Amino acid sequence: MRAVTISFFGFLLVIAATVISFCDGNSNMLCIKSERQVLLKFKQHLIDRSNRLSSWVEGEDCCEWVGVFCNNFTGHVNELHLALPSISSDVYTTKAEWFAYVRSKLGGKINPSLIELKHLSFLDLSNNDFGGLAIPEFIGSLKSLTYLNLSSANFQTAIPHNLGNLSKLHYLDLGHNSLFEAKTLQWVSRLSSLMYLDLNYANLTKATDWLQATHKLPSLVELHLSGCFLNNDPSPISVNYISLTVLDLSRNTLSSVPTWTFSLRSLVSIDLNSNGVEGVMSNGFRNMSSLKFLDLSFNSFSSSSTLNWLSNLNRLQFLGLRGVSLQGNFSIATGNLSSLSYLDLSDNQLEIIEPKCLESLCNLREMDLSNNGIDQEVSEVIESLSRCSFDRLESLNIASNKLSGHLPDQLGQFKNLVYLSLSGNSISGPIPFSIGKLSSLKVLDVSHNRLNATLPQSLGQLGNLEHLDVSNNMLEGNISEMHFSDLTRLRLFFAFNNMLTFKPNPSWIPPFHCDSIELRNWHLGPQFPQWLQFQKNLSLLDVSHAEISGVIPTWFWNLSTQFEYLNLSNNQLVGKISYFPRSLIVDLSSNLFTGPLPQAPSDLMFLFLSKNLFSGPLSNILCNSSTKLETLTILDIESNPLSGEIPDCWEKWQMLEVLNLGNNNLTGKIPRSLGSLSYIMSLNLHSNNLFGQVPSTLQHLVGMRILDLSKNQLTGSISAWIGDKLSNLEVLNLRSNNFQAYIPDQICALKSLHFFDLGYNNTSGAIPKCFSNLNDIATKRPSGFMDRPMEFGLGLTLYLRALLVMRGREDEYSVTDLRKNPESYIEYNRGVTGSLRGQIPENIGNLELESLDLSMNRLHGEIPSSFSNLNFLNHVNVSYNKLTGQIPSGTQLQSFDRFSYIGNHLCGPPITKNCSRSGETPEIINGDSSEGRHRSEVNWLYVSIVVGFVMGFWGVVAPLFFIRSWRFAYYKKLEHIGDKLNVFWAYVICTGSSFWCV
Hints:
Keywords: Cell membrane, Glycoprotein, Leucine-rich repeat, Membrane, Receptor, Repeat, Signal, Transmembrane, Transmembrane helix. It comes from Durio zibethinus (Durian). Belongs to the RLP family. Residues 1-25 form the signal peptide. The protein is of the alpha/beta class. Helix content is 14%, strand content 19%. Among the domains are: 2-116, no CATH class; 252-374, Alpha-Beta Horseshoe (Leucine-rich repeat, LRR (right-handed beta-alpha superhelix)), CATH 3.80.10; 393-502, Ribonuclease Inhibitor (Leucine-rich repeat, LRR (right-handed beta-alpha superhelix), Alpha-Beta Horseshoe); 645-907, Ribonuclease Inhibitor (Leucine-rich repeat, LRR (right-handed beta-alpha superhelix)), CATH 3.80.10; 940-997, no CATH class. It has a 32-stranded mixed sheet, with no helix packed on it. The longest helix is centred in the last third of the chain and has 29 residues, at 964-992. It starts with a helix and ends in a 6-residue tail after the last helix.
């Protein structure tokens, strides 16, 4: 009895001590003081930019803090939930949301004081950013941990092996970090209680024991080793994954399906996508009767005949066959795949989808057939699906195929459809009115088709619609407010490149608040769209080519704190602009804006102001000390009446890649500081009044691909460093300047040169023979930017432009133009004195030229016979030289007009004069004649000049000199005429101002 009494009192003392310990002087506080201090010390070393841990304050109950969970009885801290929920950076995420998400990430260091939390069983720090720190070694000492998640937290270096000491661990996720190469995974084998292991994107190249280390874990249910650089196991073993149901070996370099996987009869999910598997052992998969998830995407299957084994997987719910080289018809027996809810056949070469394959898929929820060559009626696919899965289908993607025909009315039966993409096909006709019945629809993309008529008003009934894309069709007609009546959730609205008209009532308030609106080529004007003032969340706006005129209203500049993309180009907007809104991309080109150039926001990346009436100097936008355009990548102010000199302050524009100041009234010399633009790819200063020499500092622009200095007054010689240093040049245009001296042989070092124009200069000398070594001019299709338009991110593909003189005319060719009509072009010094001499190089026929102009030079000799090899010529001009002999026979050369050859001593087609017999000189074209090789040639132009001079001198000047009476009469007459002119100008001045007649 006494022992019982002592034990009872001892128990009371323990409870009392525990209560005192819990309360810490406050009966309402559960948190233990020592553990609260640990958490506060832990917080001190964290970086919390969004103040997520604002509730972690001294004196407060730590069990009530955000992310802290305590045992309700003992008060010990058991769990720390400090993860950030994952977010996808897709089209539904605005830039503001993404920046807010990034700002919410915790950073800094993880304080070792956490070791003192002896009862901590759950630690989740995933989706934060610890700046490349190593995973702390002390975590291996948290012996009570059963859950550890450090995924996507920007940890680096090696995985600490003492994590193998966490014997109670059930869940371990270290995936999606930059973990360095591990030599072994033996430490994993000590985690006997482990049920979930994720090492995605850890480098396990040398950890060849990963299979031996993991298959012995008796409780392992899920194993994720995606992107771990795994190869085929060189020494297969008999595995013993007793409990494994989920296996992820995707994004590795496996050339075949590991044979040991076929022994895993309890496997429910296997992911082998993005490996090098070249076929499937179908007999192995036939026995995996429990399989529900199978992803074999992005491997290399030879044909669809290998897929017959799929009919045995009657429990299969997810089937991924994206990008596995399937061809022809997809016609597997799907009768036993009635459980299938997800089917991905995208990125193959399928041509036909047999309707019977779709009719039996009654549980189908998501289907992706995009990026194939399916060539059939769109109604055939939709009607097949409507027979069975119309009440379950949630996502249908058939984009980028060859579907034709009209959209059927059955489309309105898919009441649960959330995502529908039919873009990039040849679907015609109207959008059916039944589209308004898709009450669950969030995404509708029918862009890049041939849809006509107008938009149905039933679109306005889609109350859940968030993303609407009808761009690049042939839609026409009027749009009314009813088209948007219930679109309260619309965020992305793309309808550009149609012929639609939208002129709502000026007082109309749209029900939606969009992030992105693109209405290019709509008829929105002439007034500026007033309804835009209610779109306060805009990050992307394109109303270019919209027939809008007048002044931009003041409220417009306050629409958004940050535009990603603003395009008002190709309208008739007028007035002055004092500043731009904060933007990444601004395009105001082809309007009527006047006044000085406005100041630009500091984070601007692309600025297009060409073809306006901006005037004054460039210094306001370039050299303003308050403007730091450190991110500016493209600056295009072509074709404005800008004046003054180009400022010499380019040192701070280090990110600039494209600069176009062409066709202005700029004067002075080319500033030397342009040579500091180390990333420049295109420099265009054409059609100004620049003078002086090209500064040698431009030789530092080694990445430049376009250099256009044409139509200026530049002097000096053509520098040899252009060929020595600017090795990436593809367009070199020095036309219409005052360059002198010879063409340096170093130009031949420009192996990528595609367009070269020295016309209308004062160069002289022979054509360098090494010109035949210009490889890109010697090939029909160009390289470099001509084949690969530059991607600048943010959805912007830039097609660089250059003023090129082709076939005797001057045009502005974009990259697209050049890709469709590739021009290998050379022009030399036409119509100048001191021009090219010598003979045309014999090997010129090695070039696959399309345009060649050598006119108005002093070239002599015969046209080389290799000219007949120029099979791609569509323009040639060798007129007004001293060429002799027969025009080489060749289909191309005889097809040109005879004026391409006039002013020479040539014969043969297309010139009407036949070549003379042997020993005679051919007739001089264009009025010249010849009567034999030994008879002197007469140039009648020079004869007429001499005769005119003689007759003028002896007919007028000589009589005045020798006959005195004629000379006196002549000067008297001149004096009389002068008196009359003086009287006349006195009368004009007096009638214009009485002051001068006093």
